[in-house]
Amino acid sequence: NAVSGEIVRTLQPQGEGQQMIVPSGLAADEREGLLYVAEECGHRVSVREMREGRMVGQLGTGKEGGGPGELNDPCDVAVDRRREIVWVADELNSRVAIFKTVTREGGGGEWVGEIRHPTFLKHVWGVSFDENSERLAVVTQEGENDYRVDVFRV
């Protein structure tokens, strides 16, 4: 099967508070019909309807920070439907932030906790979750050209 490359939908939301601010990572929640968009300069993960792109919720406060529920340049996101949590690569806080999933009605999104690890020395760039093996892969940067991928059992 060849991939056609045909665009079937473009999400470019307009209006107050609807625009995406430097989107960098995406994760789909097909069960809820939602798309999680990591917005680096927005310091949030916006949660949008897949069909229209309308924002129904967000993870993080939308203001740069390092405390519980705050993000600093989130750049990737992964959804764990079984546990109903979202893993966020919180780049400049050198952690993986954990939030509850959001519902289509806009509920959820609460702060659950974080993963900090001695190997997360500088930046946390990416996350990927495999529900079958319950493994979380995390891309980190330790030095200028020193990247690594750590895989965790979660």
Explain this structure:
The model has no long low-confidence stretch (mean pLDDT 90). The chain has a four-stranded antiparallel beta sheet, with no helix packed on it. A four-stranded antiparallel beta sheet has the order 5-6-7-8, with no helix packed on it. It has a three-stranded antiparallel beta sheet with strand order 9-10-11, with no helix packed on it. A hairpin with a 4-residue loop joins strand 1 and strand 2. Helix content is 0%, strand content 47%. By secondary structure, it is mainly beta. The chain is globular and about 40 Å long. It has strands at 23-29, 34-39, 44-49, 55-59, 74-80, 85-90, 95-100, 111-115, 123-130, 135-143, 146-153.
Q: What are the key terms here?
A:
47% strand; 4-stranded antiparallel β-sheet; globular; 154 residues; mainly beta
Percent helix: under 10%
Order of H and E elements: EEEEEEEEEEE
Number of alpha- plus pi-helical segments? 0
Strand residue content: over 45%
Distance between the termini: 34 Å
Radius of gyration computed on alpha carbons = 15 Å
- The class by helix and strand makeup works out as mainly beta
* Nearest-integer average pLDDT: 90
Main beta-sheet strand count, sense and barrel state: 4 strands, antiparallel
State the shape. Answer: globular
Count every beta strand, where a strand is a DSSP E run of 2 or more residues: 11
Summarize the structure in short:
With 154 residues, the chain is mainly β.
Mind sketching the topology for me?
Elements: E1 23-29, E2 34-39, E3 44-49, E4 55-59, E5 74-80, E6 85-90, E7 95-100, E8 111-115, E9 123-130, E10 135-143, E11 146-153
Antiparallel strand pairs: 1-2, 2-3, 3-4, 5-6, 6-7, 7-8, 9-10, 10-11
